[in-house]
Structures are given as structure tokens and as C-alpha cells.
Specification:
Elements: H1 3-37, E1 43-47, E2 51-58, H2 72-97, H3 103-125, E3 128-136, E4 139-144, H4 146-163, H5 166-171
Antiparallel strand pairs: 1-2, 2-3, 3-4
Helix pairs in contact: 1-3, 2-3, 3-4
Length: 172
């Protein structure tokens, strides 16, 4: 394969890595803003009874799973290990699927950026900083952050790709 035929794939990979980097930077900057402006455990009401900015620490996984465990260091190590393995798998799939920019490769780039963002928190702080708090129809949705949002959006995009009609897949 000539270098000319490989350069579009490299260019696509670069664009997709820039998406991952943008997710990571947005996540870091938002968390740094929260640390600087909202004391831990406090909140700012943005839309009464609907949306608040908070400053909470999540020692567990998504939706604070495992947060109340009797061995938080084991959970932290398990979550770090799981995240590193996930990042390696996503990078592998990303490298193969990322030769073109499409829904799948963008989804993988978002998941990668979000996973790295939350991994950074676990390594730097021993917990993940969450700050987006929603109440929907009286239900308080667990607090989350930009990294979590991008992981969920990426996963939803992948699910949409799985459920797309076979005709749409053949058209690509």
C-alpha cells in the first residue's frame, strides 16, 4: 500500500483523536471550573427544581455503583484496570474503524475521550468529580460530568449503528 493511499486514513485518525482530545479538554476544564467555583458538597441552582451544578465526588462507577463498598481501594483499582482495558480495546477498534469518519468512529472517539477524562480523575484525585445534577419528574438522576455524557452519547451512537437497517449499512 502506498503512502498516498494511507494518508487519508491517518488524516481521519488524526481528526478522530482531536475529537477525543476535545472531549478530554472540555471535561478537564469543566471540572477545574467546578473545583474553583463550587465548594465540595455545595451546589448552584441553574433552573429551579430541574438543573443544578454540584460538586460531588464519585468513588464508584457509573451512577455511583460500588461507591459505598467496604473496600474502596479495591474498587478504585478494579475501575482503573477496567478503564485501561476498555481504552485499549476502544483504541484497537478505533484504529481499524477510524480509517473513515462515520458514526461509529465518532462514537469511539467520544467514548475514548470520556474514558480518559474519568481515568485522569481516578489517578489524580482517587475519585471522579461529578457536577451535573438533574431532577426529572421528581426523580434525582445521579450526578454526572462531561466525560460520562460523551461515553453515554458514544454508546448510544454505537447502538443506533447496530439497529440501523441493513440497507443503510450496505449504502456506506
Amino acid at each position: 500500500m502506498s503512502s498516498a493511499s494511507r494518508s487519508p486514513a491517518r488524516f481521519a485518525h488524526l481528526k478522530l483523536l482531536l475529537i477525543s482530545l476535545a472531549v478530554f479538554i472540555a471535561d478537564r476544564l469543566s471540572k477545574l471550573w467546578i473545583i474553583a467555583h463550587i465548594p465540595s458538597g455545595q451546589d448552584i441552582t441553574v433552573i429551579p427544581r430541574f438543573f443544578r451544578l454540584t460538586h460531588v465526588y464519585n468513588n464508584g462507577a457509573a451512577f455511583s455503583l460500588f461507591a459505598d463498598t467496604s473496600s474502596p481501594d479495591k474498587v478504585r483499582l478494579m475501575l482503573i484496570t477496567f478503564t485501561v482495558i476498555t481504552i485499549a480495546i476502544v483504541l484497537g477498534v478505533f484504529w481499524k474503524a477510524g480509517r473513515v469518519i462515520n458514526t461509529t468512529s465518532i462514537a469511539l472517539a467520544m467514548i475514548l475521550g470520556g474514558a480518559v477524562g474519568n481515568l485522569y480523575d481516578r489517578l489524580a484525585y482517587r475519585y471522579v468529580i461529578d457536577f451535573l445534577a438533574f431532577n426529572i419528574f421528581g426523580y434525582h438522576y445521579p450526578d454526572f460530568n462531561i466525560a460520562d455524557s460523551c461515553i453515554v452519547i458514544g454508546a448510544c451512537l454505537l447502538l443506533l449503528e447496530v439497529f440501523r437497517s441493513p440497507k443503510a449499512l450496505l449504502a456506506e
